[in-house]
Amino acid sequence: MKLSRRGFFKVMGATGAALTAKPVSARSLPENKEHNDSLGCLVDTTLCVGCRKCEQACNQRHSLPQPKESFEELTVLENERRMDEHTYTVVNKYYPKNIGTLTWRTRPTFVKFQCMHCNDPSCVSACIVGALTKEPNGSVIYNA
Prior knowledge:
The strands form three sheets. The protein has a two-stranded antiparallel sheet. A two-stranded antiparallel ribbon has the order 2-3. About 5% of the residues are buried. The protein is built from three helices and six strands. A hairpin with a 2-residue loop joins strand 2 (about 100) and strand 3. Helix content is about 20%, strand content about 15%. By secondary structure, the chain is an alpha+beta fold.
């Protein structure tokens, strides 16, 4: 087998990199922090009718400012909304889609978006001003 000078350096470079790379053992990986006393919220979205009562309850529980439109105003569901610093829970309305000759549903679907209070929330570490904190009970708090 004839090896060119360029090929030789490629092989030697790859070999050197492989020999100097530190192998990662399972013990050196981050430990999965299980929170046995964490709280959770289960939502059956198949039963949601888009009343926005969950948005109102979240707003009151966290003492957030009242939205521009009252919670009884259901026309806001016609536009897709996102969570922000004044809205921790949002319900959006999606209409059935036709795929070929099939229609998935005959009525709109309502989907709730809210903070998931992850075990290891990336939003907490990503926030450059430290406005998000993880509480011992598992909740992620936005500190305005």
